[in-house]
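SAMPLE LOG
Freezer: B-3
Tube label: C17
Construct: single chain, 710 aa
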Amino acid sequence: MAWHKAGRPEREAWIADPANRPAGLSLDVASCLVAECPYSGGLSRLCDLHLSGCNGLHSRGQSIGVRQYAATATVLSRPAAGRCGFAGCGYEISRHGLCDGHHYRWTKVGRPPLPELRAELERRATPSFSVAGLPPLVALEFQYLLQVRTDQRRSKVVPSSWVRAVNTVIAEGATSVRDQPASYWRQLSLNHTTVPQLFTDLLEALGDLDGPAEEWDRDVWRPERLGYSIEERQKVAPLDFTGITQPWLRERTKRYMRLRLARTELRSVARNLHDVVVFSRFIAESRPDQQNDPAVLDRSLLESYIGWVGRRTVEKKGPHYGQPVSPGSRSRLLSVISTMLETWRRYGWQPALPPDARIHRDEYPRQRGLKANFIDEYLMEQIESEENLALLDPETRTLVLICRDEGLRIGEALTLKTDCLKKTPSGRWALVHYKSKDKSFRAIPASRVVVDAIRGQHGRVRERFSDGCHWLFPKVSGNPDGKYPMPYGTVDTRFDAWLKRIRLIDSNGDAAIVNWHQFRHTLGTRMANAGVSGRTIREVLGHTSWEMQEHYSRIADDTLRREYEEKYEVRFNLKGEAVKVRRDADLSGVEWLAEKIGRRLHAVAGGWCGRHIARPCPKTAADGCYFCEDFQTDREFLPIHRDTLARTRELQINATAAERPRAAAVNERLATAVEHVIASITDQEHDELSPSPDDSEAVRHKTERAADAG
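STRUCTURE (predicted):
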């Protein structure tokens, strides 16, 4: 913090400066940074008068560093009050008989009597957290808290808060912090911001020691203690079984969820647990006198539950509050209980269930068709406006571009690594991300816009953490080592605030709201409307079933991948460069997906449009595709190019004869571009790119073997 306030000077030189030792711990004070100021400075190296002036500028919205302020500030004076009472200090008094610098240190060490200030500062010359004066058991409890907070690496322990917490316990004369509840200790420190949280964390950590050693035996399972990675537990809270009020049902649910965790992703198990909690609540409401009797679980109860689920309404505050629960959610509530009962019966758990204690498939509600959840193009025009995107902070803007162009789930985007970009042999960029649905890493084509945005974000992460953070979007606060990725709540709050700022409205002029997941559906819809095959949509979006793919696809694609997967396929861009695509590469799937996304059904005359599906055409009709950097063509379009050249030259000659120089110049420019494309295609220097007969034969055999294996 002090380094940032100093304007981020060169690190090594700043650290070596004795004046930059931890303020509040050293005996000596330094002069205020303002030239010729007669007062001493505290943590910010400014005296109280100049610190107040600097903070005033900040409160008025001016972003200015301490050294920048000190370079332009003038000397301020106050009535003389004598010299500082700290032995050997010659600066003017601020308050309580001390100069600004020593007064700051005096407050940080707990305001001891002035004769004891020197000894207190000497004892704290090295930053530390003292437990002096605490009873032995309380000292161990505070030391354990310090170890827990250090292991978590989420937020720092403020030394002054530590001192206040220790002094509070000493003043109470407690032999253990656990003698009183957390609320008791918190109310003793209400005037301080971080001290109450220290007591809460301490009592929670001590209470955790009382639980069973095995995590499976606890009533709350923490995913990190079960061995789940940060990617796997993204947006997943601890599995809390305390909401199941029937002890017999809680124990069977634990066994069932442990089996589920062996084969299902953590997020699905957390959702299943919530559904069992709902079932437990139903039992408590409908059979209050049989809470401890497993015999309550019979067919009569299940029939009542089916009817109760059918009458449920949305309880969460929001746009759907009070509306009937969707058929899909009702089916899930019934399916979870049905599957758990079947597992109970399969493994012979005691007590045995009645034979008719079942929920049958034909008792689930009828499913509706899939809802089109894409963002209307009227709204997308506002969201994609460069003027509106410029109002987003760089991190959130990068996330918007990734979700829009790549179709990632927001949880997958937040857990991208800094090395998520990989380059294919043909020069394309691939985005490698963790797919939460099947716990795997996969690669998809990355648009140029996304590549540039990710590179910029990587630079910001490196500036903040050097090379110590491997997350592309690290947590903003409480993350000194870059250990944690950004939580969903942070970006969701930023995104909602931005939508309000740009005043997003629908075609009727009403305020509109969109969410992150709708970008994924929008990409799928755009791809389907552009003629991209259903198989390609499924590969890009990473769907594990064909159901969602069929939701987007409306146009059949008869082009098989093997027609594309030749040894080399040569195309030419506007620079006359051959675009060479190799099939036998580690990221060949990315090559194929990028090609399928880029080739539109209603493409262009004379070639293909390579523009990413999420970016609209610039519509430069005056020039046509021959001047677009995304235009690609090959030999099969030579007749079209030659016909275009002949007609353009004729138009140029006629315009010149009619003394229309502007029209003649436009047609001459187009004719030159067409000639350049024709020359690039027919140039003999590209013949070397064709595969040799031996290579073609080898590729043919290799392809046949791969087809047999598939």
